[in-house]
Amino acid sequence: MFTRNPRRGRDDDIPDLRGLTPRTVAVRTADGLRLAAWEFHERPAEAMVVLLHGWAGTKESLDAQIVFARGDGWDVLAPDLRNHGASEGRVTSVGYHETLDVEAAVAHVRADARLSPNIFLWGLSMGAAAAIRAAERDPSIRGVIAESSFVSLRETVRHHARLFYGPLGALLCPLVLALGCWRGRIEINAMDVERPAGR
Question: Is residue 184 within 8 Å of 96, Cβ to Cβ?
């Protein structure tokens, strides 16, 4: 999770966009990364949904959500989060620094008068955690759809360590967390997603 993404730069997911054509745009984060994104807008919309994929996903993997949101007439922005797809970045931080990606996407929407200022965030897994954290920091976000967010980084690392490595995983978990947080420059206590969700 705290390393290079094995799917970075791959474009072998062929999305079924049901005839929708995205406009490819670049979004710049506060820490200087360029994110590749798809923007969907044809006519004035009541709302904008920013779609956020999970770990090892890409904007292409959000085809069903894109079609659903466009079917309801919403504007859509779907970025590749850092170290994913065609976006820059060398480390994935499981939602910690990806919160900056969400904030950059929101700023992109607000800077374009054609797009609806009524912004909703819709994230999956890591994208859901980043969406919840970003919404806590920006009370003007109208709502969040969080699919399969983890409760805390500690909890999800423990869960996956046990799932993949059994009893050995429980022993390795503190080391993995310590090394991952050091490598990703993550403040572990800031990755409690339950607290900001409650707000």
Answer: yes
Q: List strands edge to edge, sheet with 23-28.
A: 23-28, 34-40, 75-79, 48-52, 119-124, 143-147
Residue 10 pLDDT greater than 60, yes or no: no
Q: Does domain 23-151 have CATH number 3.40.50.300?
A: no
Q: How is residue 120 written in tokens?
A: 């909703």
Nearest to 104 by CA among 73, 55, 137: 137
Q: What is the pLDDT of residues 117-140, one digit of tens each?
A: 999 999 999 999 999 999 999 999
pTM of the model as a whole: 0.89
Rounded Cα–Cα distance for residues 163 and 157 (Å): 10
Query: Distance between CA 172 and CA 149 in Å, rounded?
Result: 23
Residue by residue, what is the 3-state secondary structure of 132-192? HHHHHHCCCCCEEEEECCCCEHHHHHHHHHHHHHCHHHHHHHHHHHHHHHHHHCCCHHHHE
The closest alpha carbon to 85, from 65, 108, 56, belongs to 56
